[in-house]
Amino acid sequence: MEVTVDAFVLFGLLALVSGLLVVIAAAVWWPVPSQQRLGMRDLHRRAERARLIGEVWPAGWPHEAPELPFTVAEAGRVLQRHRQCHIDRCARKSAAFRILLAAGYLEADAFRRL
């Protein structure tokens, strides 16, 4: 019994195996898309920035008590800007909290969440 292999079949199998090897090699060694790499770097930068906000006061964000009392709208903006600050360490956040508490916009134990 003699088996003959047609040249076209042999060439087709060789092309198929070569194509599969190229696809496998590309899947293994293809670089990670830059957006995913940047996403992880940005995640670490954001975590570091959030940690630093609590330790170092950035320029342009005064944390001392205001000279004049806040309006209700100003107090709301101050609480948003200083959400990373601890209410016991930031006189500006504390003053804004007291204004909103007196105006009835916050509850007395809301500072536990701040």
**Silhouette:** rod-shaped
- Main sheet characteristics: none
Order of helices and strands: HHHH
Give the % helix.
55-70%
Q: What's the pLDDT, averaged over the residues?
A: 77
**N→C terminal distance:** 87 Å
Structural class: mainly alpha
What proportion strand?
A: under 5%
Instruction: List how many beta strands DSSP finds.
Output: 0
Extract low-pLDDT stretches.
Answer: none
Number of DSSP helices? 4
Taking Cα atoms only, what radius of gyration do you get, to the nearest Å? 31 Å
What does it look like?
Helices cover 60% and strands 0% of the residues. It has helices at residues 7-29, 34-55, 72-81, 91-103. The mean pLDDT is 77. The longest helix is centred in the N-terminal third of the chain and has 23 residues, at 7-29. By secondary structure, it is an all-alpha fold. Helix 3 (72-81) crosses helix 4. It is built from four helices and no strands.
Compose a concise summary of this entry.
The chain is an all-alpha fold and 114 residues long. 60% of the residues lie in helices and 0% in strands.
List keywords for this structure.
114 residues; mainly alpha; 4 helices; 60% helix; rod-shaped
Furnish the topology, listing elements before pairings:
Layout: H1 7-29, H2 34-55, H3 72-81, H4 91-103
